[in-house]
Amino acid sequence: MFHSRSTNNKVNKLHLRALRIVYDDYESSFEQLLVKDESFCIHHQNIQRLLIEMYKSFHDLSGGDMKSFFIPRETKMNLRSNSEFILPAINTVSKGENSIRYYGSVIWNSVPLEIRHSESLKLFCKKIKKWKPVNCPCRLCKDFLNGVGFVNIT
Questions:
Q1: Are 33 and 12 in contact (CB under 8 A)?
Q2: What share of the chain is helix, strand, coil (3-state, %, to 5)?
Q3: Which end of the chain has fewer CB atoms surrounding its CB within 10 Å, N or C?
Q4: pLDDT digits over 71-83, tens only?
């Protein structure tokens, strides 16, 4: 999930080569082949798997270890915040912002409510496998500017 940009590029390059062989299409871009195959890049697949684990944790369907990563928020009132998991306080990027607990909670909040509130795990999995993250907050989706750091360029 939190691998380097070069590792991500290597996996995507391998995925691209496999799609080109399967579809015998050596002209289309990686994005066009993903649409043709109705699949996602490895990064988005990882996010989908993380969200499935979070759904299991939220609905008490997961094992003991995963429940300790994602702690549901227990509020009786309807607040403006649509956050359903406790967002941990972060002090550092490496152990805070890049942690699975923080990243999962942030990504969960970006999923539409109609998907988050699916009636069953099977239905949630079906919906989440068709969902593509928009404005992903991770380092892989940000550009690096020398002297500035990682920034979202849209």
A1: no
A2: 55, 5, 40
A3: C
A4: 676 765 555 556 6
